[in-house]
Amino acid sequence: DSGVTQTPKHLITATGQRVTLRCSPRSGDLSVYWYQQSLDQGLQFLIQYYNGEERAKGNILERFSAQQFPDLHSELNLSSLELGDSALYFCASSTPEGRWQETQYFGPGTRLLVL
Amino acid sequence: GQQVMQIPQYQHVQEGEDFTTYCNSSTTLSNIQWYKQRPGGHPVFLIQLVKSGEVKKQKRLTFQFGEAKKNSSLHITATQTTDVGTYFCAGGPYNFNKFYFGSGTKLNVKP
């Protein structure tokens, strides 16, 4: 158990809908990263937040947005969903400085299926 | 485009055989990390290499960082069925604003 929690575990929805994925980092970690992993694919970095502020942006679509709240939990919002958005979404957190050299601890992921 | 390339994509070995996966970057990396993802699981951090030419060992696993800090390898000696999973390398350039995961090498070990 990495100490990072993600909810829900599974999500089934229809095209055009909007969903929110939630992540709670490990105690003491200020940084949260979001990744997308399509079937049998690598990890695509989406976005990083550090202590409530956006720190780095990867290949995140305009239909997707994220935020980190004062209690450090983060939410990833996916809207106007398409079939191709079906994937495993991971959240990771890292030790306080939020730098890339740090170990990232991954949550169990949310499996999203868009029908 | 993809900054960190990883080969091979798949590797099937007989239990007891060795396994190696390679990671290559077009740019100099500040560090390289290796993660393992078991089937149905999430990536788990294995190790980080920072220095040029660095070699680290964890039991049957040997990790190397190239002299130019543009490539890395993970070698597993005498594979076991518990080694099954996908191994990812990850690294970023010195400006710290980008971090890339390799596409992963999926290892299957036949008993």
Describe this structure in words.
- The complex is a heterodimer of chains A (115) and B (111).
- Chain A has no helices and eleven strands.
- With 115 residues, chain A is an all-beta fold.
- In chain A, the strands form two sheets. In chain A, strands 2, 4, 5, 6, 9, 10 and 11 form a seven-stranded mixed beta sheet that branches. In chain A, strands 1-3-8-7 form a four-stranded antiparallel beta sheet, with no helix packed on it.
- In chain A, strand 4 and strand 5 form a beta hairpin.
- Chain B has 111 residues and is an all-beta fold.
- Chain B contains no helices and eleven strands.
- In chain B, strands 2, 4, 5, 9, 10 and 11 form a six-stranded mixed beta sheet that branches. A five-stranded antiparallel beta sheet of chain B has the order 1-3-8-7-6, with no helix packed on it.
- In chain B, a hairpin with a 6-residue loop joins strand 4 and strand 5.
- The mean pLDDT of chain B is 92.
- Classes of the chains: A mainly beta (115), B mainly beta (111).
The dominant shape of chain B is globular
Average residue pLDDT of chain B: 92
Greatest interface (CB-CB under 8 A), with counts per chain: A-B, 22 and 25 residues
Spans of at least 5 consecutive residues with low confidence of chain B: none
Helix content of chain B: under 10%
The biggest beta sheet of chain A, please? 7 strands, mixed
Number of helices of chain A: 0
Order of helices and strands of chain B: EEEEEEEEEEE
First-last Cα distance of chain B: 38 Å
